[in-house]
Fold these 4 entries.
Entry 1:
Amino acid sequence: MERRFRVKAERQRLLYRSDIVDPYGLVYRLTGTKELGGEWMPTGPSKGNVREPLILWCREGERVVVELTNSIELLPSESLEPEPHAPEVPVEKADRPVSSHVSMHADLVRYQIRAADGANVGHNPVQTAQPGETKLYEWDTSRPTSEDSNEGEALGPLLLQDMADFRNHRHHGLVGALVVLPKDATPFEVQPRRARARSTAKAVWHGSRVTVVRKGEAPSNPAAEREEHMVLLMQDGLRLFMKGKGGNVGFPLPDPPNEEAGDAEKEDQGQKGFNYRTEPLGPVFDPQGNPYTRLRPDPATPVWHVPSGAEVRLHLVGACDKPRHHSFTIHGVTWREDRFEPPTGPVPWVSSESAVSCGTARTLAFKIPVHPGHKARDLAYRSGVLKWDVPQGLWGIIRVKSQARDEVSAGAVTISLLGAAAASAVAAVSMFGQRRRRKRK
């Protein structure tokens, strides 16, 4: 079975929040899909309207083919350049060039190294696309068979990223994910602000939020085995700016303060976000200077709507640009820690993950608890690093609907965002600001 996708790499200003922008953004924009023996189906956002990273879905064992076209438009005398105040690396070149080529590299899958790696290495053929050129990348999504390969399980999520210029392109948006589902699974579209796919929903093989139904069933069958899936790309090393009036750009957002480690703190430079979105907190990092309140119940970061009692699969992908590791937690739920099964005894259950960095790909499988009265409520997801991840915007909400309703009203839920965690994070930033003021005096 073969599944094909047509994708264009383009320049686009990325709006991370209504007042925060990356004016040097680069995106993978899906334009078409095709199944074996079928016709090409136009799909995806229109040019200039990409709102989230490219996220593709397939079944285990399928051959996935991506036709990537470099649609970066440049004037005859124009070239790509580093953005002002770009996040640094320990060994930096002030006048470093920026490539106008693009590519797509996929982790974990099998492919022909001379044709589909996405990187130009040694004497291998050129695998990047110059402006106007199209390259094909073919991947085998079968899981390797060996004693320690968890045979029988699908690969799950994996990172897609540009390898033509990973010093520049990745932190400007050329990242994505491919989720490999079991052979009998079908993803169905979930409309915005809905908690699950409608009974009349169509199968869809792209997007960050789907309802997955197993064994060839459809959402219209109430007895069908279903799961609510969402994909979250964690980003760091971004250079974001305050959005001015019209097309103007204001000052860059502040980096975490320098500390005694000196050059090592280059790992913390830049901003952070999920899926091209961020929601900074507190007086240092938030241009609005606002704490989270009930008056602003929806953060700019993804708000995932799910039914009470649902089986959920959250696919966490590290689309990071810095070597600094992060952690990740979800309030109010737990999942099996299958990566470190003890030789004897029960498998531990956890509510957080550590060592999340570029290329990390994990599926967190949990069930939304059913509370008495089936009341709607919010569960926070966030980085576990309070200094400086949460204040820089690495948090969001899983919004649980009541059993009686399929849609959720933000005003009808109990707002309990980050609780003591958010308060501690904002307090830590405030205390730092006070220490800096005392030092100036």
Entry 2:
Amino acid sequence: MDIVERIKAEFPQIAEVMSKVPETFAPDWLMASAVQETGLDDFGPDTFREPLERLCASINEDADLNPYGRLLFASVIRNQLGNRLLLQDTRKNTPERLSEPLVPPIIVTGLPRTGTTFLHRLLAADPAHASLPFWQLNRPIPRNAEDTKEKRIADVEALLDVRRKVTPELDGTHLIRAEAPEECLHMTGVSGFTRLYWNLGPVYSFQRWLSRVDKADKYRDYVDLLHYLQGEYPGKRLVLKAPDHNDGVAELLDALPEARVILTHRDIVEQIGSFLSLGRTTRKLAVNALDTAKEAEGVIDMTDVSLQKMAEARIRHPDRILDVRYTDMMADPLASVERIYEFCGLTLAKSRRDAIAEHHARNPKGKHGKHEYSLAEFGLENDWVRDRYKDYVAEFVD
């Protein structure tokens, strides 16, 4: 039974909503839906329009979505547009929330599947730090007085309950829980400049454009949201992570110069194989058929551009970026943490170190299942990949 049939059988209310999503995506009806849901109509600067238009075109031309895929994309886009409306409303009516002084944040990024989640959750275990849970990233600003923290958590729990029932295998590749630290990819969608949509389905032309476009507008919105959320965690250092940043590190640090960025690096064959496998696990659910050759082509393009952009960021911001190897993290996680603290000018007191060590002991890698993959499944050869990225590997992996 495929996912559409499972939803019809197990979640009839969701199936009814699924049947009503238009087959053709267009900015106007998506925006109108967000306006209806929030009661707001000011989206702020129109910088979001181009990515939204390009996304809709890519969905219509590239993705071949099934009914579940259309529901998934429509729901996520509307939520992000709703968050944009709420951010603009905050700018107009409570601008003081966006001027909360930031404790200099630590932001973990790198190519996908290079240990960013592992490292992020280690850093988040420090009681002096605040990591953002999934529910808060998904709904950072309440929609009204009734949209309490408890309601938002309950709404997200309901979404994740469906995810666990229809796609239980996803916990072994990327575990998500409502109140657990999650990647801020789920918050970058307010600008439209986000890889979130690539994670949902094969929007090839959108992602190719997104990889290359300047991200200054993205990070203006992102920094405003960080200021807002700092107010929820007074005195604590925000610790964030998302591979979504890897092709925009320079613009991120332009907008947030007090931040420190940690770039993670892993064996390139393992990294690309894991990323392709995860993508197949998630994106195949949303489409009628997934073209594995195009998947591989898209991932190689993303990798090429990301490595170039990260190199440019090191030139522009040489003192704000630290490179960390995956093998070092796996061999001695606490030593990697200590190195990061030293880079950030922080002291790892015994109580903080013990909290991180306890988290690691409770959450060994592979606890939620083993993720197996092979490049050959996607028409790529290990030697070809190693040769293409040999300079990168020599500098940052070996």
Entry 3:
Amino acid sequence: MLETDVLFNRMQKTILPEELTGVFEKISLADELCKAYTHVNREVVKVGLLVMMLQSKGLIHSGLDGLLVYLADLSMEDRIEICHVITQAQTEYATGEAKIIQYFCH
């Protein structure tokens, strides 16, 4: 099980509030949307969306190295799943969690 609270708390301590404008609102909306799709892993959507939004704002390094450092508190299985979903969200063939992330990032 993903520890999204750990990631969110660390993020709030290391990133200035003005840099987070709109991030939590989009994550909250995505979480609400996930409730309608029970087959979707809500935690993967929230973490994936958070990471992609922070990367797009330049607040964490893009690429696999920056992603793995940011996700260091998670299990290897969770890191691989999030990397897979984020990669899929950047293609035209996104489905499930990746499609939701893609929708809120664009």
Entry 4:
Amino acid sequence: MATQGKILVYKRQGKKGITYTYRIEAGRDPVTGKRKCITKSGFKTAKEARVAAQPILNKLLLGKNIIESDITFSQFANEWLDDRKSSLKLATQHNLGISIDIANKYFSNKKMKDITSYEYQQFINDYATKVKYSTLNTRHHAIKSIFNYAVKFGIILNNPAINVELPKIKLPKKEITDLYLTKEELKDFLYFVKYKRYGGPSDYFYPLCVMLAYTGMRVGEACALTWEDVDFKNKTIFIHSTMFSKNYTHYERQDTPKNESSIRHIFMGETLINVLKDWKKLQLRLRLKNGGLTNKIDKEDYVFTKFTRSVDGKHKEIVVIPNVIRSIFDYMNRIGAYPKHMHAHMLRHTHVSLLAETRKVSLTDIQARLGHSNDRITKEVYLHVTEKSKRDTAKIFEEYIK
């Protein structure tokens, strides 16, 4: 029989095969006189069980509390997120919520104290087959923070997410040329959108696509623009906000940038200026046609708005949110309306590739225009395009000296 101050490890045969359990005798309850013991199962090896039990035994010998809470992962994770909401941007709250939802598929009703390192590793191994490594790392970091918080406040004694290995599973890699459009493809795509060949009735979609392709800005930044941010006289756009949205009952313009370099002034060319001027005129005509400012939902004078029928039968004017843009691209891809698989961010990458092709704009200047000081895809696209230019340069030189 195990005695206080010793670790007992034993083998169990269950549905998942052979696992190991540790048990630590913690003396007797001074009130009831009943024996107290700490047990935890699900370890892959006896050594793993003993290693997990040792810190608990050390705390017991030092007279510290070793009784873990019965709270479930789902309950504690929600409390953890609630404690942080006041200091987080809405987008960050949303992303952390997604991480919790993913972990809940594996641990929802399981008690925090019963989740072992082996079980957590199995979760990581399974999830790694479904996502790219960067996504896996982001989710793991968030979930590990939940367990760290639980250890800090004595909910559990050990963090099962520590020392877990993140497998690098090679997913089918996209060709770099699939990430952007060539100059001719961009012209073709904008023509396709302008004349609504995709089957959509959205008047705002063409000017918004031109905005994305001719500035490289993010979709959330474009949706958050107001006409006050657009200076036709000085040919500049002031980008300082982004639009967070879950749906049309939960969206918000945020004046806190993604990073410091996200706040920027960028210059416009004549093509974009003319497209925006034409859109502004059409937007005003549509507003008058649909009841004027009285039917406008948002107080801000957003650049990109749409008119939607409300429950009272009237057409209300409301800002275009990123979800709507994604839906249009998803619809186009689903029905095969355009030959190439498209998404809004592709227009941002296209802006990079076309600037790189000119051989007149440095990577640093492109990154400043895009509001991102260190973006991997931007660098990959730039280096891919300029590598072709380097080969062309050598060919031009040799032809010249013949």
